[in-house]
Amino acid sequence: MIKNTCPQCESELSWKDQGYFCDYCQQKVTKTAFCPDCSEQLEKLQACGSASYFCNYCNELKSKSRVKVVFNKAED
Fold first, then answer.
1. I need a labelling partner for 46 at 20 to 30 A (CA). Which of 8, 19, 34, 60 fits?
2. Closest CA to 52 of 15, 44, 68
3. pTM to 2 decimals?
4. Cα–Cα distance, 59 to 50 (Å, whole number)
5. Could you tell me which SUPFAM superfamilies the record lists for this protein (predicted)?
6. For residue 26, is it within any domain?
7. pLDDT at 31
8. Cα–Cα nearest to 66, from 31, 42, 30
9. Domain total for the chain?
10. Which of 32, 58, 59, 28 is nearest to 44 (CA)?
């Protein structure tokens, strides 16, 4: 399971205003998923309450359990 932690202080992130937020650092955080096979950024597909990831480079769906997730401080 992917843990949603701040890249700066490693505190658990909260969900505010349609995005991740670190209450300790008082900063917005972005979540980006990368393909476990080619390391390209993945496209998140959401339908019927389920999320999947698609790699445009490999041209296939990727299991969310294999996806590499990176959290970064959001650029304002």
1. 8
2. 44
3. 0.80
4. 20
5. YfgJ-like
6. yes
7. 92
8. 42
9. 1
10. 32
Which amino acid, one-letter code, is at 64? K
Q: Which residues form the domain of 17?
A: 13-73
Q: Looking at residue 47, what is its pLDDT?
A: 81
The answer to whether the beta carbons of residues 39 and 58 sit under 8 Å apart is no
Residue 40 CA: distances (Å) to CA of 9, 32, 44, 56, 76: 26, 10, 13, 8, 24
Specify if 39 maps to a domain.
Answer: yes
Tell me, what amino acid is at 58? C
What pLDDT score does 1 carry? 54
Q: What is the phi/psi pair of residue 19, to 5°?
A: -165, 170
